[in-house]
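*Target chain*
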Amino acid sequence: MGKCINHPDRETSYNCMKHNVYLCRECLECRDPDIYCKFRPSCPIYFITKKGFDSSKQKSGAAAGGIPAAPQF
């Protein structure tokens, strides 16, 4: 674990391997989303922020690709 580059008082495990910096949840953002990165296929930061996976913001039901609730008649 390391300390967030913007918040040195916060411990975090999210590490940008390209720039070798740690980012906390508040700062979690791909720093170069449009520029080639050899680490991107295994980058949790890119996966969470750019692919739309964030467990704290997930929707439920059909909107999230799940099974919709049974209709009420």
About this structure: Confidence is low (pLDDT under 50) at residues 57-64. The chain has one helix and four strands. Residues 36 and 58 are 28 Å apart (CA to CA). Strands lie at 2-3, 11-12, 15-16, 21-22.
